[in-house]
Design goal:
Largest sheet: 4 strands, antiparallel
CATH class: Mainly Beta
Strand content: over 45%
CATH superfamily: YVTN repeat-like/Quinoprotein amine dehydrogenase
Number of strands: 28
Helix content: under 10%
Strand order of the largest sheet: 1-28-27-26
Number of helices: 0
Length: 321
Amino acid sequence: MQYLLEQTLPIQEITNALAFSPDGAQLALATRDKKASNLLYQLSDWSPRPAPRFVRRDLKFGADGTLVVAGVSVERFALTAPKLGKSPFSIPGHARGLTRVEVSPDGRWLAVHKYLEQLELWFLGVSPPERRLTVPVSVHCSFFFSADSARFFYTTHGYRAGRPVDALHQAALDPGGGSQPPTEGPMPEGLSVHDVVHTTPHGLVAIPFPDQDVVIYDWASLRPRRLGLRALEGQGFRCGFAVSSDKTHLVAQTFRDRDEWTRDWSLVIASLLTGEPVGALPIGTVSAGLLALSARAERIAFTRSDTAREVQVFRRDDRYA
């Protein structure tokens, strides 16, 4: 399949986060623009929709279509009403807004990471939300929920006997808000705290370095299953990638060195169900910074790494499918 440029969105300030809604009908952006810190577009006609105000660092859609935004505070908004309304809660974030979040698939749990401070786990099934877990973590930690929302995972980096040690911790959760103390175990094969990971019903997805292959870790055993993509038509993968909002596809960056000074980049779309590549989009000699992929891999949104003040959106052209 091929992708054609559909929209170029000029942004006044640097873009911090991109996300498509689960149904692929909306695109949300978090920016550093104090006048329009968050932007929300209805993709059927590209009309702007009411969006949360104030400078934000991160945002995530819940499975129910609600939008969680994170900065100096963490709040959640329903996007179905004509007006945005008020968040049902406000959880303190990092004092300078350096906050990252993840929402559990069932929407009952929220993980909040405050840069250089701690990782917190909040239960949203009560009002106001209650904090269930607070742990110190490294700057480069990953944290995520299992596909059934029954486990919460986070990684840590430390030293033992003078040697660096990466570890994976997990805590059992129940829908009523109970949680078990986290247990520590080794990292899954080939995975480090520096690798980008995404969760899907099929397993935990990563592109470990230096393996340079897309790997799915089974939820039951966390054993790796390599898709065999191996950078496809390029010489290597860049480890940053995105999973589609319906968890069926991924988009990753590959590169090929044209000469000693020039590197050509492409975005490659692959099915997580079959492991087969289904499309490619050459993007020139500058790599992508932020990446987002909509449901059914219909749209790709990205910023370029040399500037985050412009978001390009490409749409699949089914005439070439």
